[in-house]
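HOLO CASE FILE
Compound: iron/sulfur cluster
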Amino acid sequence: MRVINLDNEENKEKNKEKKLSFEVLNNIKASEDLGLFRCVQCGMCTSVCPAAKFSDYNPRFMVEKVLEDDNSIIEDENIWNCFYCYTCHSVCATGNSPCEINQILRQIAIDEEKQDKNLKLFASFGEDFLDIGIGGIPKYFFKDLNKDIEGWLDFKADLDTIREELSLGSVEMPQKSIEEIRKLLKTSKFHKRIDKLKGKSK
Ligand code: SF4
Ligand code: SF4
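Model generated. Tokens follow.
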């Protein structure tokens, strides 16, 4: 249940004018109980956010901009650094979800063609999902990752042997499961959406 008084004249007007905060709240991706207007700007989400630790992305700031109806946040490249781990969602004491808000802002950015250069990177997550049947670090990042962590590619290539030596199971998804996931994704036209995103990228 939303805790926002829509009978309040100011909010009624904002809703009518489709201000960003209401656009987010009324978006089909927003949960029924999304606590956007309950955010107290405590910053807990930013303090636990892995993306905030390693980049200029700041979920508290992103929510602040939405609450201020400041559409410039849609064009802020930092919003693409969130990787939907949902840690912010799980710690927010007011039931807000920067993760969910981020997904909505990105969708608006895609629809309004305001972030085209980030789409190739974004689509790479989906491509890898189609390829290996599980979410993971897309191949798109491998080269940079190897620069950041020396020998990472060799480590990755040897992972199966290392896991075997440690008596750990394989990390590979069984081929049958991958095929089943691909079938589901094909039925839901997921691959078409990925192609569309790639087509829009610059
Ligand atoms: S979204 Fe939640 S955790 Fe983040 S600043 Fe607002 S109230 Fe705090
Ligand atoms: S979902 Fe995004 S915003 Fe939330 S903690 Fe994870 S990376 Fe940060």
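CASE NOTES: Residues 39-45, 60, 63, 92, 94, 96, 98 surround iron/sulfur cluster (ligand 1) (CB under 6 Å). Residues 98-111 form the longest helix (14 residues).
CLOSED: yes
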